[in-house]
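pasting for the record
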Amino acid sequence: MIEPESTTRIDPVSRFFGLKAGDLAIVAPATLCAFSLFSAYSVAKPLRDAIGASVGSKEVAALQTGTFITMIFASALVGLLVSRLSWKVFVLFASVVWVLGAATTAIFFALAGTETSHLVDKAFFIALSVFNLLSLSIFWATMSDILDADRAKRAFPAIGLGITFGAIAGSWFVSTFAKAISYSNFIWISCGLLFLAAASIAWILRFAPARAREKRRTPGGSLGEMVEGMWTALASPYLRRLAIYLLLYSATGTLVYMLQLKIIGAAFEHLPAADAKAGRAEVSATIDFYANILTASLQLFVAGRVLRWIGIAAALTITPLTTLTSIFLLLWSPTVAMLIPVQVARRGFHYALDRPAREVLYTVVSPVERYKSKNFIDTFIYRFGDVVGSWSQVRLEGMMPSFQVATVAALCLAFAGVGVSLGSMLKKRERATSDQL
């Protein structure tokens, strides 16, 4: 159990983050765990993007479909395990699986070599996408289980900072050393970071409440709960529109991602396989690095004031409009020089402005609706949007450029329109709530 808060003197670090006495014993390892998890992912992500850039659009679409199917099976497996294991045992088991999985991947990369690692590449592409989804979900579920509402409000900003700096550190490392370190060694570095995350989560679990030793399901973790969340989302016009918004976000974002892979792939196709992979990973990591820095800067100094000034409805149109602009610019100038600033701006504005605005949309639904629908919308709908976007890009490549532009414009404008309507529905719900008080 968590020790009661005391009135002892607060250390400088706790005072800086607004923590109370006793919080740091949990917040420090939790922040370290978040940093390690996301830096491990950020080291591996550019390698996955380089793999996607080395194959055609149809194969990337097939990999996205494979990721979607694997995610469904993984969700069912998680639900099965959590129903039979205590939460503490399950979390420790999952942490061990992450470390062993990374070590196995590093060994296979080392044995296969750059020229003959195609099967390993495909498995890695899918596994990393599923890992990112599950690992953060398990981490946040653990923290929500341990921290009460008051402590969570104090702790989560510091933990979120750990995620941001983890993303910056991982992407910086790859952008700096992509041409000096082999794929297998990068994965060994991710493995070490995952081991550090596992050690941190083991320490955090010392504070877990007694109920974490009981067999139970994690919120939204089972396939059955995801199906229940689907019916809840479909039954509510508001949640249904929110699901459409996320579907369009994911689909149009995947269109930009597919263009990124195509541009990076063409830029290094004249090089030997090993050098081409390194170059592609370096460009992807550079985009991640500067996008994360822009996101952190906007979050610290701009985002809050901008959201209050322009409102949620306008904020929800930022990503559709920047996505439309990004696609137009990349079709006009399909070069790495254009790709880097376009993707940095699009992703930075999304994570700093649109993403927080989207989370505000859940504040006016009942806890039961949020509990049942959010996991379905944020996982199933999101990954299904990836599948829709990737296969849409395959179809668009066979059409006339003018038809491509018209189709993309229609999708992005529909995306913006749904955002505006959600902002309007949010205001009506807020007024209805205030009238009842």
